[in-house]
Amino acid sequence: MPSKTKTTKKTASDQPMVMGSQADYDEFESAAQALPASEVTPMRADLQLALHNVKLGVASIEAERDRVEQLADVKVEELTELPRLVLATIFADTQIQRTAPASEVQTLLVRAAALRSLLLKVALGLVEAGLLPRAQIEAIQKGSGAPDMGRDCVALAAVFTKNAAALRGKHPLKAAQIEEASQVGTDLLKALKSGRARRPASGPVPGSDMRDRLWTLVVKRHDALWKAGAFLFGRDQADAKVPSLQASRGGRPKKAPANGPAAPTP
Fold first, then answer.
1. Distance from C-alpha of 153 to C-alpha of 182, rounded to nearest angstrom
2. Read out DSSP for 159-196?
């Protein structure tokens, strides 16, 4: 009789960094542009956490889709596409021309090089053991330059995270090292986009307006999602079924960011 595989609960450090995509951004750009400037809400949130929570909320609503469609003024498709709208916001956030001094970029480069080397060596060993596909790792290995190093760190971290269950106990890497590689790679790519030059102390950050517009769409549609949850499950259960955008993974809401939206009233 085959032995049961022991499962372990994932922690936040085991979660891969999600980056969104140009396709997500393109899909919602026109709707974001159409928002009146007076309605735009500055984005001061953990977007990875928001993505996690909207997926939970949408799954709860999807399970009761027939009942939701009975609600007047509720556009079900707009609710179910919320995860992709958050991905569009994440992508927009990665495109912002943030600034970083040359010394910070150099620090990130050094750390990224060390992490890339570590993860790549382990990955190649797993390839030889037949535990990872050779073509995928060799594709990551190709290329050179600072941007490529950042992308390699993110890609390698994603490989280990995606295959965490199959590789458990078969390599020496710790979850914290994999998460750091993803974060350092992401930070390096953002720093390189800044052109290594400091922006003026005042004035908007280039690209932040579109990110804030997309985030405003997220907030508006999440309000509608919560109202649908209150209708389906009652107000007492709505927060559990449709968690707030910044509710912690354990269920308790984070401290609301400054200028955040008020709780919706169904």
1. 6
2. HHHHTHHHHTTSS---HHHHHHHHHHHHHHHHHHHTTT
**H-type helices in the chain, by residue range?**
22-33, 47-62, 65-68, 76-80, 82-94, 102-128, 134-141, 146-162, 164-167, 175-193, 208-233, 235-241
- Residue closest to 116 by CA, chosen among 94, 134, 142, 97: 142
- State the Cα–Cα distance between residues 174 and 177, nearest whole angstrom: 5
How far is it, in rounded angstroms, from Cα 202 to Cα 154? 32
What does the block give as tokens for 109?
A: 């480069």
- Orientation of helix 208-233 relative to helix 82-94, angle to 10°: 160
Tokens 């995270």 locate to 161
CB of 118 within 8 A of CB of 173? yes
| Distance set, CA 37 to CA 43, 97, 145, 227, 238 (Å) | 14, 21, 40, 25, 30
pTM to 2 decimal places: 0.52
pLDDT tens-digit map of 220-252: 999 988 888 888 888 888 888 899 999 886 544
Q: Do residues 255 and 214 lie in contact, with contact meaning Cβ atoms separated by under 8 Å?
A: no
